[in-house]
TrEMBL record:
Signal peptide: none annotated. It holds the Pfam family Fer2_2. It comes from Rarispira pelagica. This is 2Fe-2S iron-sulfur cluster-binding protein. Keywords: 2Fe-2S, Iron, Iron-sulfur, Metal-binding, Oxidoreductase. It comes from the Bacteria.
Amino acid sequence: MLLTCKIDNIEIKRETNPAISLKTFLKETLKIINIKGNCDKGYCGNCGVTISGQYALSCLVPVFMIQKKEIFTIQGFSTTEEYKEIEKIFLAKKVFPCPACAPARILLAHSILENAHNIMEEKNISDQISGINCTCISKKDYASVILEIQKEREKRHDKTR
Ligand code: FES
């Protein structure tokens, strides 16, 4: 199939086997090297990307499903102001995810907050972060980082009201 989509702000038009996973397409066809995860079965949770703003495990998404969609990997997201803010808060709270899960954690944190309809409580956040199974940081610390990012975004929002 001819796949047309936007990945990390770049328009892509490629012939591809529609059945391969998005992860394979990103890593092997586009040579995006910082797509993590090695189970290819949805277990580790480290291969996350966003698809039209929604967080998804790229190993579980057949590539035909991203036709005409907009994808962000950590490579593209790392050029945004939101990324810098998230990174700063991880550092300030001294929560240091390992290189294997950090990209997924950053994209998931951003996506949870972007898609939240209300102010998130720790409990709602905990329910949504359980898919990343790396144990380098605790779920509690990770949730506390997301709460802090939310606080910063709210402050900014208040200023612009
Ligand atoms: S590679 Fe492990 S969840 Fe995708």
